[in-house]
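User: What would this chain look like folded?
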Amino acid sequence: MIMFVVATIAVIVAIVIALARAILGPSLYDRVLAGNAVGTKTILLLGLMGFLTGRPEFLDIALLYALMNFIATIAILKFFAYRTMSPQMRDMSPRLGNGNHDGGADG
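Assistant: Here's the prediction, encoded as structure tokens.
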């Protein structure tokens, strides 16, 4: 039992270190990676707390949180890569720069 309490404390320390990297990260991708690491360690913390309290439904919450963490990380990285969430706007952006908005050849 004491081993799981020590593991919980270690996960909390790892979350604090990852939060420090999220705040101090020199680049945007460091911050996104640190946010993902915080989410992963939160999933571990939920699993440990569910075991320590004897409530197995915490594992269901941890699985749901893992799915949301993955989807959110992918969405954030897509937004920062393309500066939009819409694939249609990304496809149109090179055509908008030349001043010809109707697609015709008469400029």
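The two ends are 75 Å apart (CA to CA). If you want, I can go into more detail on any region.
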